[in-house]
Amino acid sequence: MKKNIGSIDKVIRILIAAVVVVLYFTKVISGTLGIVLLIVAGIIALTAIIDFCPIWAVLGINTKKKE
Fold first, then answer.
1. Which residue range is the domain that position 19 belongs to?
2. pTM for the complete prediction?
């Protein structure tokens, strides 16, 4: 598993996940849509933590800077 998520991409993913979590727990989003978005936010946060996105890998996208 080759890392393919750069620092800006990682920050954006974590911010999106945090916003979804806050919206869910403040009951702005709820029900089935809220649960689905919460699961997606968890997946987005997980990909940011492990620095690998399988969708980016399939599409050949790499936002990580070359070292």
1. 7-59
2. 0.86
